[in-house]
Amino acid sequence: MRLPHGEPLSQLDVDAQQLQRAGRLVAIMGDTSSGKSTLLCSLYDRYLRGAFADRSFVASTTLGAFEKLAHLSRAVSGARTPDTKRTYVSDGLQYYHLALVGQENRARRVDLFLSDRAGETYRSAMDHPDAFVALPELSVARVVTLLIDGARLAQPEELHEVLGTAGRMVRAMLDSCALNDTQHLHLVVTKRDEVERSENRSAIEAQVKSLVHRLRTNFGPRLATIQYFAISARDPKGEHEPADGCDALLSAWIDAAEPRVRAVEQNEGPATEFDRLATIERARA
């Protein structure tokens, strides 16, 4: 019996595990320091405390990777304030695995494979939109989760740039055909605590709401769904519970509908001149 190595999974590792047990792939993307690793860390830490979002933790093939990710958020690290290990461009594409079961129906197990990649990669892809097609996590994910940095939204001089970048990133992924109408897009404002403490909270929330409305209007038919969430994965001031708002996001990942099977009409007649010629020859025989 081969035991899990505990490190982050590659795309090939995920594909191999999918052959044994079907899972749900979630691409987590966003600009630099938008909170991708912190979101992963907060979910893991939350399940260490017990059930969360009406589900319980049952297994993970990346426990060692989760522990390394969470180390700087713990007192034993010696850090003055909780932090999360950064993901670098050189790390490439990595996946973290969580297997969960419902508290009411423990027979319903779901295996989540959550991607992690440096934000610099996604930002540089915007200059060459075709580069999005080369990112495998986007093409295989049922759900694509785009994180928007709430701390930057709380800075008046950065608000419009951050929202503009998010909008352009969505357009670039769709125009390059990196995403399609079978996939779900989740727009997630991270560090909600920073937004709520801002003097410009109302204006920020109005601008975010406007962006979500524009994306739904312009791109809604090109995606399965577009949903919006706001989370506070780890509030340094302790005014929010750990993983605040992440329960709704997690449930949306799990409940995202699979695409309907499309019926393909059979073409009874010959499709090409060669087929027609073959049909005539058979009729003569």
Please name the defining characteristics of this protein.
Double-GTPase 2 domain-containing protein, about 280 residues, about 40% helix, P-loop_NTPase, alpha/beta, DO-GTPase2, disordered C terminus, Rossmann fold, seven-stranded mixed beta sheet
CATH topology: Rossmann fold
Q: What would CATH call the architecture?
A: 3-Layer(aba) Sandwich
Average pLDDT works out at: 88
Rg (CA only):
22 Å
Report how far the terminal alpha carbons are from each other. 60 Å
Structural class estimated from helices and strands: alpha/beta
- Put simply, the count of helices is 11
Structural shape: globular
What are the segments in which pLDDT stays under 50 over at least 5 consecutive residues? 75-79, 279-285
**Which strand order do you get reading across the main beta sheet?**
2-3-4-1-5-6-7
- Main sheet characteristics: 7 strands, mixed
Summarize the helix and strand pattern as letters: HEHEHEEHHEHHEHHEHH
Q: What is the CATH homology-level superfamily? A: P-loop containing nucleotide triphosphate hydrolases
Instruction: Give a count of the beta strands, DSSP E runs of length 2 or more.
Output: 7
The structural domain count equals 1
Percentage beta strand: 15-25%
